[in-house]
Design brief:
The protein is mainly β. Helix content is 3%, strand content 41%. It is flat.
């Protein structure tokens, strides 16, 4: 709901009333300090971004967000490197096409912004220059250790990039950039690489009289039971050692069976009288469950044959009201006696009306939500505030809630975010169109939503414009060309 609160504060008072601008365009030209960063505004383009600007005889460079580059060396711009004083003055006006031989610390990803410190944020990388100044690319052995440098910009791979797929194999790199061999702890798991650096995946390792196995992602298995490898089942202790290295045929006995399907995941199965996992709908001890084509029990929200159902963590099918939870998020669903969730459907419960969206999620704290051409409001409990609402003509600024995020509920809660629209006096929605309101410019996309984020490309004009979170365009006159690449 954060976006909605911001929009309410920034737009409700300003837009619905007079849109009186706080400052004139002339007041925003020239230098302006924002937090601990400097920007430069011009009347024509808003703030200067991704461009050089000569000001009072001195050259400055402004990054993507209009932040002046300052106090850094080897800042890469168009394959050349520049040094800047702390006041932003460029020391190497024509740039360096070659770097000093050996290791060099450079900035290749531009300048960002740290919202906590309100300072410019630079992302540094390491490159290695040959004797002639050319950057190393691909594999290189330096000081007896192997490194890999990106073929595009020469940046050294390191641990912060995780495992990298190179020439058909996965490799890992230490913080220093050195290629990993042998045992390595990365990404929260133990891994192993041969002397050639290739990580073990789908592969056994016998060492010190013990057997270890690495899954498809190169993760060593530990604390895992009933893990299937080539139709045999293995178990691994907390150290990763396999306790039955010869494998075993799984003793299929009737009832519930817990089986690991990954290094950190498991599934439940139910074995029938025939000794095989049950599939599809099954009624067990008076409760309904659903099992996939592979036999694993469903939990959470699932779509089955075009209908949505919800299953508890125990696998039991939900009927009636149910507060579905996924991680730190939760929301209400309602299922009939047949288990089918109410989707795009009203429910009268306790004399109050509730509505469930296309994926079965009850609307909560939603405003002007459009249902069959009529706009309804819902309070925090989900009860409709105006169940007898009638269609009305809309003019001027209008905010409506739209489902956004994760409607299926696989990863978290579906959110209802406020989006702003504009209708002319005849009730026609603004689409693909600019609006000047109170001396400020706004733009509306093809679906009518007001643009409210940086770097929006307007195809009809072939230009990129920057918009603040309240929808005001920062460079409404000329925009800037779409960056190449």
């Amino acid at each position: 709901m954060g976006f909605k609160k911001i929009m309410a504060a920034a737009l409700t008072a300003g837009m619905m009333l007079s849109f009186v601008p706080a400052v004139s365009m002339a007041d925003t030209t020239g230098w302006k300090k924002e937090g601990n960063c400097w920007k430069y505004y011009t009347y024509e383009d808003g703030y200067v971004s991704n461009a050089w600007k000569k000001i009072d005889g001195t050259w400055y460079y402004f990054g993507r967000y209009g932040i002046m580059v300052a106090g850094v060396k080897n800042y890469q711009i168009d394959n050349k490197y520049y040094d800047f004083k702390s006041n932003g003055e460029c020391l190497t006006l024509y740039g360096k096409s070659r770097l000093e031989p050996g290791w060099n610390k450079v900035i290749t990803s531009g300048v960002g912004y740290n919202s906590k410190t309100q300072e410019a944020a630079y992302s540094y990388s390491w490159v290695y220059a040959e004797e002639n100044g050319d950057l190393c690319r691909g594999w290189r052995t330096i000081g007896g250790s192997k490194y890999y440098f990106d073929n595009y910009n020469g940046v050294m791979y390191s641990c912060d990039t995780g495992g990298r797929w190179i020439d058909g194999h996965t490799y890992w790199f230490k913080e220093s950039g050195e290629m990993v061999t042998g045992w390595y702890y990365g990404g929260g798991y133990w891994r192993y690489a041969g002397s050639d650096g290739v990580m073990y995946e789908y592969k056994w390792l016998n060492e010190g009289g013990k057997s270890y196995y690495f899954d498809w992602a190169g993760r060593m298995l530990c604390n895992v039971s009933n893990y299937c490898i080539n139709e045999k089942y293995y178990s691994f202790d907390s150290s990763g050692n396999c306790i039955n290295p010869e494998g075993s045929e799984k003793p299929f006995t009737k009832g519930w069976v817990k089986e690991n399907s990954d290094a950190d995941q498991y599934s439940w199965y139910y074995i029938g009288d025939d000794g095989l996992p049950c599939k599809g709908w099954q009624k067990i001890d008076g409760k309904w469950y659903y099992f996939s084509a592979h036999g694993n029990m469903y939990t959470g929200k699932k779509e089955i044959n075009g209908d949505w159902y919800c299953f508890k963590e125990t696998g039991e099918m939900v009927t009636g009201w149910y507060r579905y939870q996924k991680g730190n998020y939760e929301y209400w669903v309602y299922a009939g006696s047949n288990g089918k969730l109410y989707c795009s459907k009203w429910l009268n419960s306790g004399g109050k009306w509730y509505y469930f969206d296309v994926q079965g999620i009850m609307l909560e704290d939603a405003k002007n939500f459009k249902i069959n051409g009529i706009y309804y409001d819902f309070d925090a409990s989900g009860a409709c505030k105006n169940p007898d609402a009638k269609a009305k003509k809309i003019t001027g600024w209008f905010e409506t809630d739209v489902e956004f995020g994760d409607p299926a509920g696989y990863y978290g809660k579906a959110e209802w975010y406020g989006f702003w629209y504009y209708y002319d006096q005849d009730g026609n929605m603004y689409t693909d169109r600019w609006l000047n309101s109170g001396g400020k410019w706004y733009y509306f996309k093809s679906d009518g939503r007001m643009v409210n984020y940086d770097d929006y490309y307007i195809k009809s004009e072939g230009k990129v414009y920057d918009f603040a979170s309240n929808g005001v365009c920062r460079n409404p006159y000329n925009g800037r060309p779409l960056a190449k690449g």
